Amino acid sequence: MKILLTNDDGVHAPGLAALVRRVSEVGEVVVVAPDREQSAVGHALTLHHPLRASRIAENIFAVEGTPTDCVNLGIHSLLTFRPDLVISGINRGANMCDDVTYSGTVAAALEATLMGIPAIAVSLATTGAGEHYDAAAEVAARLAVTVQSNGLPPDTFLNVNVPDLPAGDLLPPLITRQGKRSYEGTIVGKVDPRGRNYYWIGTADQSYQDIPGSDYHAVSRGHVSVSPLHLDLTNYASLEELKRWELR
Length: 248
Known about the structure:
The chain is of the alpha/beta class. The protein has one domain: Stationary-phase Survival Protein Sure Homolog, Chain: A (3-Layer(aba) Sandwich). It contains six helices and eleven strands. A nine-stranded mixed beta sheet has the order 3-4-2-1-5-6-7-11-8, sandwiched between helices. It has a two-stranded antiparallel ribbon with strand order 9-10.
């Protein structure tokens, strides 16, 4: 396999380093990752200023841009081959439930899928710095081989969340669906030394709904969660109801 690796924690993140070590054993690896942390940038694409990319080591490029930029630039300019697979991660912190819409890690896999390339987003479900990236990298490598053998359904990529546990303590992977989270976040407002207001977003505790069959339900019990996500955001259950509207 020829594999493009990226992330949203930055090119020097420990999760990416663990991924490189293990995935290099199953394929030829090139890293194209942001030069700094780009967490929660979603599917942002840089359009209004040029991107700069630096080759910082053999087959490792740092890009002054978002994870989506990295996938675009890597596939269209930096790589000498079209990758068989894109793996994004290993993210520090879970990407579960409704949070996937914010995630740069997930967005990089989505971008690869738009280009017709199989993709996997991998996150370590930790609230701290993370201890067991090597265990998550083992999960990613095994999934890479499985995807190579079986392929993925059209317009589908995998969102994988791994509990922060030693490999021997992880329970078997479960195929899950995207769960739900309660959003009751607070915004902390403060005043700087010059008397101007500033604000911190994202300061509230995470509150996931413990729904059977969901990604959070699996991870909270020690299972690896593997959720198939796709690109079509249409709410098909609402189509017939909306067709009854008298739109003018």
